[in-house]
Amino acid sequence: xxxxxxxxxxxxxxxxxxxxxxxxxxxxxxxxxxxxxxxxxxxxxxxxxxxxxxxxxxxxxxxxxxxxxxxxxxxxxxxxxxxxxxxxxxxxxxxxxxxxxxxxxxxxxxxxxxxxxxxxxxxxxxxxxxxxxxxxxxxxxxxxxxxxxxxxxxxxxxxxxxxxxxxxxxxxxxxxxxxxxxxxxxxxxxxxxxxxxxxxxxxxxxxxxxxxxxxxxxxxxxxxxxxxxxxxxxxxxxxxxxxxxxxxxxxxxxxxxxxxxxxxxxxxxxxxxxxxxxxxxxxxxxxxxxxxxxxxxxxxxxxxxxxxxxxxx
Length: 313
Prior knowledge:
With 313 residues, the chain is of the alpha/beta class. The protein starts with a strand and ends in a 5-residue tail after the last helix.
């Protein structure tokens, strides 16, 4: 079954050309099925690219997925196409006021990782969303800075600056092989990383509620979970498409910023060579595993969600 998105969303035609299953509202209404309701809090400056990347992965499943894009009403992104957010996004304040429930929620990264959390202009609004998700969302998936924000808000785990930007494609191991998220994974898998900071590993390990599912000595903690998968924290970017790191690298070069060639990305570490994608299969598998977990565990009636698994248990 496909993901349900508006036909005029820019990602629609791109995904159709890739043979990703998408469906419009009209067709979805004629199917006798309760779709998974997934919210996406898109904080990335590459608004449309991030939409396409995530929808590509969420569409690789036999489940019907109903997507709701959410924005921070207290923040005005600079790079979204004119009118795009007003047309396709809901303000998070409305979701909070109405008590809307989701089977799954994705909170993306954001280009604010070197700023203290409380100094981010939309921090109070995002903190409210994080609090709300504990009782109104079955499983919340946090990515990169979104993971750092969730760990800080819920457990007080600080982020720390890295000596140099962690940038490139890195191998990661699996600590908890029998968890649903890693069903079908190899012993070692590759994933993109692009960050200047890291959540403190010792603080994560010492928090009884958290389990480090995947890590490597070189790039640190990759995935941690809590509440049996109701909270998932991913420090990297499995969703990245083939050229995302290339665009970031050339953007920073053009700005005159200090940036190293992304590691293990271009053949021979030569930017004149086209990058080789070696993380796509595990990215699709991870998101499929997550959606399958959500489908199997979420109450059919979302109004029963909080009582079925109370906050903090």
